[in-house]
Amino acid sequence: MRLRLSLLGFVLSLALAPAGAQTPLPSWPQFRQSPTLSGVADGTLPSPLTRVWTYDARAAVESSAAIVDNVAYVGTGNGELLAIDAATGTVKWKYQAVSRDIGIGSSSPAVSGGIVYVGDLEGVVHAVDAATGKVRWTFKTGGEVKSSPIVTGDRVLAGSYDGHLYALEKTTGKLLWKYSTDNYVHATPALFNGVAYFGGCDEVFHGVRIADGTKAVEMKIDAYTAASPALADGIAYFGTFSNEVVAVDIKTGKVKWRYEDPDRQFPFYSSAALANGLVILGGRDKLVRALDRVTGKERWRFATQARVDSSPAIAGASVVVGSGDGKLYVIDAQTGHKTWEFVAGAGFTASPAVANGFVVIGDMDGKIYGFGK
Question: Residue 325: its pLDDT value, please?
Fold first, then answer.
């Protein structure tokens, strides 16, 4: 009730503001929040967080939520795309994207212009009306779509396990171009200056021009990469299955630094968040780490009880991240000290979405949680 009153008060304050002064509710419209995949939310989180609602999707949730206009959109393992009132946990609509025995995997919705875009494990990209849950169009690729769609200008970009990055016209789903790699495209591309950047399962870091699908960057990394890159100041940061975190200068095509723990040789699947001079990400060695963005030196580490495939979100001074140990953690971004935790019981591989002071995340047992005041 307090969350609902708080949201109502916020909306009323916008309605009473002078003309031209109104601003939309803070949102998390896509995987990692922004086109550069920074993982940083607007505003801060209440302390402590409180579980406000729980929804049982009855199937594992690997898809990370998008939150726009106080509605959370999330895909489930039984093939449903859900629109959930973020204040109450009430389902507004369900869209059956694919059969229940195939499902939606790690592809996370992107919301733009009143349309929700998501991929499924049958290899289809869907465009769904955000208000009604009615399909606008679908596009079939040749492999599973675990990459999360990204909307830019008049097009939607999505990677497929058929080895291609696709550009589709966002209103019709018409194929504009496809870019070929030598293995799965699992990562979600980060966008900067008209180029889409992603590390491939072909051990190459790619840059593809959004306008025409031509190659801008092709850099051998010598590491299988499933994590999505985070971009800042011309540097791409991402972890690899060769147990490293890499910083790549996208202007020069050179590696700026590599981090590898001398004692714990485990892959990095979690995508990094960038704030306050830090690169923060999880590892399959059960740790959440903060690395210095300039040097790659470790600043702090936080231990969980299982692998951390969930990608951290940063809100103000707080880091929110799930772990395979069945806990959602809030960690102080500067010190690495835990400030709060929630025990779900089932592991998290999905990443938290953070908007307007609350958090939405699903677990592998099919529970979707909303946390706020």
Answer: 98
